[in-house]
Design goal:
- By secondary structure, the protein is mostly helical.
- The chain has two domains: 1-57, Arc Repressor Mutant, subunit A, CATH 1.10.10; 60-203, Tetracycline Repressor, domain 2.
- 74% of the residues lie in helices and 0% in strands.
- It has helices at residues 2-6, 8-32, 38-45, 49-55, 59-78, 87-104, 106-115, 118-124, 126-141, 151-170, 176-191.
- The radius of gyration is 21 Å and the shape is elongated.
- The chain starts with a helix and ends in a 15-residue tail after the last helix.
Length: 206
């Protein structure tokens, strides 16, 4: 009761609302412009710079928090992807769904890469990477994916190709509508065991 009378819970609720508004503004603003300033983000959130810095002492910390939120939201969205059946078909579905998320957050990724070390970005991707690792392990067990290279290396290839596609789109050398097909073809070629024919996209889900 004393805490309520002192206004502490109300202050905490205000703080949580401010944090939520700042993160939403950061996702939207950095999603349009990876070089967006703290002032732009604060204005979009409807708070002052002092309030923003009270929750996120530096731009780097704000970018990291926004990037982490985007990954968490994407991870939740991918929970609905059907990864059963032929591992190659499941991989195609995972790439299709994952790419839409990567495509929407291309600008945010650029912002993260500009302020965060590669190791930190890999750490933030760790939980979503586990989904791909489980699928690759199943594909290896069923003889659909190569076993002469480590699972972590194959998953790294998948993420590298996706990020390279984002770079190609930013450079104007690839259009978003073709990215998923390019990524799938490249990754399936990399994952197919040596000596086995690489399946064409039209052969999947046959």
């Amino acid at each position: 009761m004393a805490a309520t009378q002192s206004g502490v819970p109300a202050k905490r609720a205000d703080a949580q609302r401010n944090i939520a508004a700042i993160l939403e503004a950061a996702l939207e603003t950095l999603g349009r412009n990876p070089e967006a300033s703290v002032s732009e983000i604060a204005k979009a959130a409807g708070v002052g710079r002092v309030t923003l810095y009270g929750h996120f002492p530096s731009r780097a910390e704000l970018v990291e928090a926004a990037f982490a939120r985007a990954i968490e939201d994407g991870h939740d969205a991918l929970d609905g992807v059907d990864l059963s059946g032929d591992p190659r078909d499941a991989l195609s579905r995972l790439i299709e769904s994952s790419w839409h998320l990567v495509d929407r957050s291309r600008s945010l990724l650029l912002a993260a890469q500009s302020v965060l070390p590669p190791g930190r970005i890999r750490t933030l991707h760790a939980e979503p990477a586990e989904r791909a690792e489980r699928l690759v392990e199943r594909g290896r067990t069923e003889g659909q994916f190569r076993t002469d290279l480590p699972t972590t290396w194959l998953v790294g290839i998948l993420h590298s190709v996706m990020h390279s596609a984002a770079d190609e789109i930013n450079a104007g050398r690839l259009t978003p509508d073709k990215a998923a097909a390019y990524i799938t073809a490249t990754v399936l070629a990399a994952f197919t065991p040596p000596g086995q024919p690489v399946p064409k996209s039209g052969e999947l889900e046959a």
